[in-house]
């Protein structure tokens, strides 16, 4: 990859015209390097964009899934032990403030140019949003509702699972939405260390530069983020029907 970057940089520095990849029989749009050639995009979707899209989804799901499995129990622990909110929140905030490329660079000497390196960084960026959204959702449960649970003879654990968590679920879903969309964007940057995801055709297109390749991959990344956010909104409505009813009253 570094060799390709150097070659592209040398071509740009020399002031030469963009080199359009030889994709065989091409249309006038491809030959003239049009802004977006629909025919090339559709013809190469299964070989160029489809696999990258699948990889992007897989990397995102792994990162958000592991991040949730870490952040959610920590949030529950902090909910019971209030003194843990500040240190755990500070740690997750610190990880979130590290620039993605800097974190990838720091991890490479430890885990190499690998998917593991990318996932460690991606998981780190999900923790703050997932932790704080869960803690905030639990803290916003009305105190009189908790007291009503106590009056019904519920234990502390029963109050958590039967009252607090259902009422905090909209906040948890909101955190998942933000974490998912953020991860989708950071996965594009991860293509600098692993040749996977939609960031890979974007980088390759910029090196050519062939407009359709990086614009098509960018549009797919936007569409993926919108689709993921929409699905999580629908999931939130299914899991919290009472919240929708309350808004319409």
TrEMBL record:
Residues annotated as transmembrane: 57-76, 88-107, 113-131, 167-194, 214-239
Coiled-coil ranges per UniProt: none
Domain ABC transmembrane type-1: 53-232
InterPro entries for the chain: ABC_transp_perm/SBD, MetI-like, MetI-like_sf
The UniProt record lists the keyword Membrane: yes
PROSITE patterns per the UniProt record, alphabetical: ABC_TM1 (PS50928)
CDD domains: TM_PBP2 (cd06261)
Membrane topology field: Multi-pass membrane protein
Protein known as: ABC transporter permease
Organism annotation: Streptomyces endophyticus
